[in-house]
Amino acid sequence: MNADVKSIEKKLQDVIDKNEDAVKGFEKAAENSKEVSTKNYFLGRIENRKSFLKQLKNAVPELQLGNEKIEGTTAGAAHRTWMDVKAFFSGDNDESMLEEAVRGDKSAIKEYSEVIAETQVPARVKEILREQRSTIQNDLETSDILEDFR
Questions:
Q1: Which CATH number fits the domain 3-60+76-149, given the four candidates 1.10.357.10, 1.10.287.1080, 3.30.565.10, 1.20.1260.10?
Q2: Is the pLDDT assigned to residue 47 strictly greater than 80?
Q3: pTM greater than 0.70 (yes/no)
Q4: Mutual orientation of helices 3-32 and 74-89 as an angle, nearest 10°?
């Protein structure tokens, strides 16, 4: 496999890892949320990110972009532990979970933008990434609104 293809595969795998961490993070946020509306918001985000994973893994089948199992990364696991600690000490679990969602979405948007900027990424994959980034941006704005509303 040439270096350009390997580089694309690595960058797309990073986006997939970010989405797997998001699924697990939103599961943790839903678990830590007390209000039904906040819990349901996070459950919807889980399904959204699972859809992202499927799109990305199917976009370039010739690349090795993981299997169906959602594993997440070690850094993501550490962050989810932090979410539990924060929820334990927070007077408002829902607000603290929304804050973590905002932080994760900002990081994801940055990651997506970096990959979209790469010249070697195929146009059809860039379009998928742009659509997903737009959805995350909308989710970020919703999280901000929900956080402000609280």
A1: 1.20.1260.10
A2: yes
A3: yes
A4: 20
